[in-house]
């Protein structure tokens, strides 16, 4: 593990881990609570792109994760790599897998969710179901384990709409634990010092073709401490 930057986000001495790096791209294990890029309100707030610029100079954004989402995130180091990776996202040839702990216990083991979504569709700026104006959105959902009224899920989004996973899970009655924006149940776990609320959503794995060699690269991100502890508390230790 290579430590890029020490930054207190949701635990004492949380570190941002470099999962993969070469002259073309860099992949990080993003901690929950830090922005992927500059925010719209406070341009001085610490974010991954700014930290990378301090270290490497110019950096290109390939995709983003929500502030409260942890896990694998890619940045390109040159325009050619950026274009190559963006094409893979646009053509849906990149494999992305997320993990979430949710409220609810579905009767099915696997489900394909295909519900059109409209970004910034209400007064709370949520992504909402909209049959006429919404964009096509597809997410594959698989139940890994469940106990009582809580389930541990794997999600593979086939499209890349803002808040797609959070919106789709909420719409099928499985809101992510800790999701105040889309959840029906306001179950949160505030941090003792900065009132940080955990969202149990993690970008677990990504597979893509390398922009220089075209070799398939698989990158997997370890769970943050709060996510791992929740799995243990639920008795899902085999999946930690």
Word description of this protein:
With 240 residues, this protein is of the alpha+beta class. Helix content is 16%, strand content 32%. Strands 1, 2, 3, 4, 5, 6, 7, 10, 11, 12 and 13 form an 11-stranded mixed sheet that branches. A two-stranded antiparallel sheet has the order 8-9. Strand 4 and strand 5 (70-76) form a beta hairpin. The model is unreliable at 1-14 and 185-195 (pLDDT under 50).
Task: Give a quick precis of the structure.
This protein is α+β, with helices and mostly antiparallel strands. The protein has helices at residues 48-56, 79-90, 164-171, 225-233, and strands at residues 2-6, 15-21, 25-30, 60-61, 70-76, 95-103, 110-114, 117-118, 128-129, 138-147, 150-157, 201-209, 216-220.
Q: What is the radius of gyration computed over CA atoms, rounded to a whole number of angstroms?
A: 18 Å
Question: What kind of sheet is the major sheet?
Answer: 11 strands, mixed
| Helix/sheet category | alpha+beta
Helix content bin: 10-25%
Beta-strand residue fraction: 25-35%
Q: Can you give the mean pLDDT? A: 87
Ends apart, CA distance between termini: 19 Å
Work out the helix count. Answer: 4
Query: Which residues form runs of ≥5 with pLDDT under 50?
Result: 1-14, 185-195
List the helices and strands and how they pair.
Layout: E1 2-6, E2 15-21, E3 25-30, H1 48-56, E4 60-61, E5 70-76, H2 79-90, E6 95-103, E7 110-114, E8 117-118, E9 128-129, E10 138-147, E11 150-157, H3 164-171, E12 201-209, E13 216-220, H4 225-233
Parallel strand pairs: 5-12
Antiparallel strand pairs: 1-2, 2-3, 3-5, 4-5, 6-11, 6-12, 7-10, 8-9, 10-11, 12-13
């Amino acid at each position: 593990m290579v430590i890029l930057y020490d930054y207190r986000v949701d635990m004492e001495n949380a570190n941002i881990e470099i999962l993969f790096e070469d002259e073309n791209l860099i992949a990080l294990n993003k901690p929950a609570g830090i922005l992927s890029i500059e925010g719209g309100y406070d341009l001085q707030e610490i974010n991954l792109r700014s930290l990378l610029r301090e270290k490497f100079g110019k950096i290109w954004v390939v995709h983003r994760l929500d502030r409260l989402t942890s896990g694998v995130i890619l940045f390109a180091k040159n325009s050619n790599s950026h274009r190559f990776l963006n094409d893979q996202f646009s053509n849906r040839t990149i494999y992305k897998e997320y993990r979430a702990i949710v409220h609810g216990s579905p009767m099915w083991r696997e489900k394909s969710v295909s519900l059109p979504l409209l970004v910034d569709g209400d007064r709370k700026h949520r992504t909402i179901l909209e049959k006429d104006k919404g964009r096509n959105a597809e997410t594959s959902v698989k139940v890994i384990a469940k106990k009582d009224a809580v389930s541990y899920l794997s999600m593979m989004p086939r499209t890349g709409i803002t808040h797609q996973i959070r919106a789709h899970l909420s719409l099928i009655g499985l809101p992510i634990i800790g999701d105040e924006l889309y959840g029906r149940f306001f179950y949160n776990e505030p941090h003792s010092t900065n009132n940080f609320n955990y969202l149990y959503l993690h970008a677990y794995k990504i597979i893509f073709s390398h922009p220089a060699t075209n070799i398939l690269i698989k990158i997997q991100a370890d769970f943050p401490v709060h996510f791992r502890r929740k799995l243990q508390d639920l008795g899902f230790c085999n999946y930690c």
